[in-house]
Amino acid sequence: MHISTRFLAAASIAAMSLFAGSAMADGEKYVIGTDSTYPPFEYVDASGQFLGFDMDIARALCTQMKADCTIVSSDWDGIIPGLNAKKFDMIISSMSITPERSKLVDFTNKYYNTPPAIAVPKDSTVTDVAGLKGKTIGAQTSTTHANYAEKHLADTELKLYPTADEYKLDISNGRVDAVIDDVVVLSQWVKSDAGACCKILTTLPVDKEINGVGAGIAVRQGDPLREKLNTAIAAIRADGTYKKIQDKYFDFDVYGAE
C-alpha cells in the first residue's frame, strides 16, 4: 500500500469540493489531502474529479460527520509535511499505519488492509520470489513497498520512481524485471489494457514493522479529529455503507481480518 508514493503531474489542480448544499452548511469544514495517482484507490478523471475507493470512503465519512469537506492534491513526498503545515486537516491516501510514520502523525484505526505483491512480465521466466535474485525491481519511492524490497529483496537491484505510473511504463517496456506494490493496485492494473504486459507473480508476507497494520487516515498529532473519524469509520461499517463502497471496486473483503 502507499501504502505507497505517488506524484500528481498536475499537482496544481484546483481543490474540489466533495460536498455541496445546505445540508452540510452548518457542519465542520475539513480539507483532505491525497496523492491522486493511485488507482483504484484515488485518481483524477478527465474532468478533474477525484475518484476511487479512498475518495468514496472520504465522502462517506464526511457525510457521517456532517462535515463540509474539500479535497486537494499533494505529491506523496510532501504529504505528511503538508498535513503538519496545516495545508490540510487529514490525509486519505492509502497511507499504511507504520511505527515510523506514527512518530510524525496520528492515525485512525485502519479502514482497509491488503498485502504487497510482485508483478512480472507475462513472458518472464521467474516463477517465485527466489527467482528475482539479481533482477531489477521497480517501486514507488518513499513507500512501504520500496522499504519492503530494500529489506526482504536485498539481492535484487531496486529502481525507484516518483509515481506508480512510471514503474508501470518501465516494466511494460522491459526496463525492469518486476515491480512491487499493493496487491489490489497491481491486480487492477494487470486486468486493464495498460497492464496487459504483466501478471501477478505472488503476494508477499506482511511485515508489520514495514507494512503496518493497514491503511489509516492521518491527522496532526493530538487532533481530536482522529476520534471523530474512528467513530465515523465504525458507523459506515455498521450501516452497510462501507460494504457498498467496497463492492463497487473489489470482489473480496478489502478490510481484512478484525
- DSSP summary: helix tally: 9
For the residues shown, what is the average pLDDT?
Answer: 90
Give the termini distance in whole angstroms: 18 Å
Q: Which structural class is indicated by helix and strand composition? A: alpha/beta
Query: Main sheet, how many strands, which sense, barrel?
Result: 6 strands, mixed
Strand percentage lies at: 15-25%
CA-based gyration radius: 18 Å
Report on this model:
It is globular and about 55 Å long. A hairpin with a 5-residue loop joins β4 (42-44) and β5. It has helices at 53-64, 79-84, 99-102, 144-152, 164-172, 183-190, 208-211, 225-238, 241-249, and strands spanning 16-17, 29-34, 37-38, 42-44, 50-51, 68-73, 90-96, 106-107, 116-121, 136-140, 157-161, 178-182, 198-203, 215-219. Helix content is 29%, strand content 24%. The strands form 3 sheets. It has a 6-stranded mixed beta sheet with strand order 1-6-2-7-14-8. A 5-stranded mixed beta sheet has the order 11-10-12-9-13, sandwiched between helices. A 3-stranded antiparallel beta sheet has the order 3-4-5, with helices on one face. α1 (53-64) packs antiparallel against α9 (241-249). It is α/β, with parallel strands linked by helices. It is built from 9 helices and 14 strands. Mean pLDDT is 90; it is low at 4-25.
